[in-house]
Specification:
Oligomer: single chain
Largest sheet: 5 strands, parallel
Strand order of the largest sheet: 1-2-3-4-5
Pfam family, one: A_deaminase
Strand content: 5-15%
Domain Adenosine deaminase: 13-327
Keywords: Hydrolase, Metal-binding, Zinc
Structural class: alpha/beta
Number of domains: 1
CATH class: Alpha Beta
Mean pLDDT: 96
CATH topology: TIM Barrel
Protein name: Adenosine deaminase
Bound molecules: zinc ion
Number of helices: 15
Order of helices and strands: HEHHHEHHEHEHEEHEHEHHEHHH
Radius of gyration: 19 Å
CATH superfamily: Metal-dependent hydrolases
InterPro entries: A_deaminase_dom (IPR001365), Ado/ade_deaminase (IPR006330), Metal_Hydrolase (IPR032466)
């Protein structure tokens, strides 16, 4: 092999299906936006913004950094910069990106401002950098069911072509998926595709609930599915893809290193997974780093890595012709990289 395997892994073309725009703000941008809106931050030292020791401090920082994103230009900047980071650090080609509407509407920001701003940033990034991006609105699990249903109605009222799906995040154990059947029903009736964070800090049976009761087509995380062989077998059988996140979950759940991460067992079991950065700047990572570290530390050979990359293409919510074109472009680019690196 010519050159370093980690740089090969960074340079592979990538699809990302599990990234929360609110967890992608550059620390320097947080400081600038806080200045623009006269918001006091606990620190204005750029390298101290994302310093935390506990999950509670983490959640506090998440709220604080997002309080600096207020007008349409701020939302546009947030979306543009994270796509730029994805391209620069990981050769990102296409992302389906989560946003959390009630995180913003609850602090008085109109839904139109949120969506129009994100769409502005996405379109500018595609124009300047060639990267494409769609949006998935996330239910915040600690919201009451009627707030979630109303959120779905509102995103559908302000629907832009970039909005393609509904997802669900935040603490899973206290608020199981069945709480949001109605929000998912409204989303499906409105033509949205469906996913959910699932079996991350909740039991394997949440996988079954998300598939059968909510109608999810793919799932996010899913590590606890491993605890029930019947659930694992069903997901393999049905071809359910899990959008998994090595770094963020290793940090949150204190898993000691990436070689013992449950994702390795999901791959061994034959489950369909693809790699993602989750909340990249919050966890000091990026999509390039997720591939570089997870695949290199596990000694995954190029053939297996190619399968992980291509699984991202297969699990994307693109139409068939678009997906076929992306499949061809990815295969050609990976072949070229294999030649360059002597693989
Ligand atoms: Zn997530």
């Amino acid at each position: 092999m010519v050159g370093d395997y980690r740089s090969y892994l960074r340079k592979l073309p990538k699809v990302e299906l599990h990234c929360h725009v609110e967890g992608t703000l550059r620390p320097a941008t947080v400081v600038e936006l806080a200045g623009k809106h006269s918001i006091r931050l606990p620190t204005t030292e750029v390298d101290q913004i994302y310093r935390y020791d506990t999950i509670y401090e983490f959640l506090e920082i998440y709220k604080t950094v997002n309080s600096t994103v207020i007008d349409r230009d701020d939302f546009a900047r947030m979306a543009y910069e994270t796509l730029e980071d994805g391209v620069r650090l990981g050769n990102l080609k296409y992302r389906e990106m989560f946003f959390n509407p009630t995180l913003h509407t609850a602090r008085g920001i109109p839904m139109a401002t949120v969506m129009d701003g994100l769409v502005d940033g996405i379109r500018a990034a595609e124009h300047d950098l060639g990267v494409r991006c769609a949006l998935i609105a996330d239910v915040y699990r600690q919201d009451p069911p009627e707030v979630a249903r109303r959120m779905v109605e509102e995103v559908l009222e302000h629907r832009r072509p970039e909005l393609i799906g509904l997802g669900m995040d935040a603490a899973e154990a206290p608020d199981p998926p069945e709480k949001f059947v109605e929000a998912y029903r409204v989303a499906k009736a409105g033509g949205l595709r469906l996913t959910s964070h699932c079996a991350e800090d909740g039991p394997a049976k949440n996988v079954t609930t998300c598939l059968d009761l909510l109608g999810c087509e793919r799932l996010d995380h899913g590590y606890h599915a491993l605890e029930d062989p019947a659930v694992v077998a069903r997901c393999i059988d049905q071809g359910v893809t899990f959008t998994v996140c090595p770094t963020s979950t290793a940090v949150v759940y204190g898993w000691p290193d990436l070689t013992t991460h449950p994702i390795t067992r999901m791959i061994e079991a034959g489950m369909s997974v693809m790699l993602n950065s989750d909340d990249p700047t919050m966890f000091h990572t990026d999509i390039g780093n997720e591939y570089a570290e997870f695949c290199a530390q596990n000694d995954y050979p190029p053939g297996l890595v190619r399968r992980l990359v291509m699984q991202g293409v297969e699990a994307a919510w693109l139409d068939d012709s678009d997906k076929a074109a992306m499949r061809r472009a990815f295969e050609a680019e990976i072949d070229e990289l294999d030649r360059e690196f002597g693989i």
